[in-house]
Amino acid sequence: MAQVFISRVIGLPLVDASDSHVGRVKDIICYTRPDGRAPRVKGLVVELFAKQRIFVPMLRVHHVSAHQVSITGTIDTRRFQRRAGELLVAGDLFDRPVEQGDAVARILDVSMHEVRSHEWELSQVALRTNTRVGRFGFGGRSEIKVESWSEVPWLHASTVRTTATLVAEFADMNPADVAKELHDMDPQQRGEVLEALDDETLAEAIEELPEEEQIEVISALATERAADVLGEMDPDDAADLIRDLPDAVAEDLLEHMEPEDASDVRRLLVYGEFTAGGMMTPEPVILDTDATVALALAHARREELTPALASMCFVCRPPLETPTGRYIGAVHIQQLLRSAPTLLVTTMMDEHLEPLHPNDPLAKVSRFFATYNLVVAPVVNDAGHLVGAVTVDDVLDHMLPDDWRGDQMDEPEDTGVTRG
């Protein structure tokens, strides 16, 4: 993707998904990183019509053009408050002097580029260089040049980020990026960060770590804290992690977990790791037989659901928590979106979709997904009860080599390829 100079972004209108004018971009906020890596763009400082400034994370930025910045989703309208370690590009860098040998340069502009979808970094610095004026006022001249961020040593992040700064940064980062940051830390700093992170953020990050590091992290926590973190993880991921722990440690953690969370995990541990039962989540979208399309869509739009789980609703007799009453069938989200809100979901179920059995092996599960072009599939036991659902990401996770997460952690951050 071409470079975007930040002076051209500042002042642009910010518009939402309905093309309504939200406010104007006033600055770009970044955070510095050690080892000379370019600062990562954290988000935008936007001024609303009421002159209040708010923070908009880059995860919400859909497109940056010459005329406007487009965003998706909802935004937090609380007043922007700068955190420790944050860098305001216009406020902190523009017009800053930079010593360059016998010349004095000032920063005119800074560019950013998208290294992958929704992830931006600062990349180039535009400098106006003024050679020193001679004794009698002669000899001075001005020159503008653009240099890579890495070629301006003065700008490198030379200080180590504090634990408080790291925790603040992680609040707005993708779990996979938090995991990579944890992977790159020295043991002492990682221990401090683990203690400071909230349980939910840590649980999401652990799910993205290689298996060996998952064990290291959970083993480094006190038993009560480790049990709380496991309770925040998806039950299938928690079960996979517990399987790799010594039996005594695993049982101790299960005893300290909340009974409901422990019950979900114990039910998954009954099945082999590479079976439909071992891969499934016990918390899909489940509806009663009298549910309408409107009710189904309300369940499917719950924020905590992954896109895969939200793509299909399962109809069962009560009880509606796994293991449910008798499994009736499944309905696809596309069918719901095309139907009247008052229609019953039982009138539009997929009659050709046969459920998986908990003991079906990985090979059968993967062929099932390929045959039906699915991203989620029901798992029903011999008694005809829905016990969970397998998502395509869980299938891929079990099909890839054991060390695939570790290989991903060791990839260079900027591959030169933009994904989006």
TrEMBL record:
Record InterPro entries: CBS_dom, CBS_dom_sf, Mg_transptr_MgtE_intracell_dom, MgtE_N_sf, MgtE_transporter, PRC-brl_dom, SH3_actinomycetes
Keyword presence, Kinase: no
Keywords tagged on the record: CBS domain
Residue ranges the record marks as coiled coil: none
UniProt cross-references to PROSITE patterns, sorted A to Z: CBS
GO cellular component, one term: membrane
Domain CBS: 349-411
Pfam families hit by this protein: CBS, MgtE_N, PRC, SH3_actinomycetes
Superkingdom: Bacteria
Chain positions covered by the region annotation Disordered: 401-420
SUPFAM superfamilies reported for this sequence: CBS-domain pair, MgtE N-terminal domain-like
UniProt key word Transmembrane: no
GO MF entry, a single one: magnesium ion transmembrane transporter activity
Protein name from the UniProt record: CBS domain-containing protein
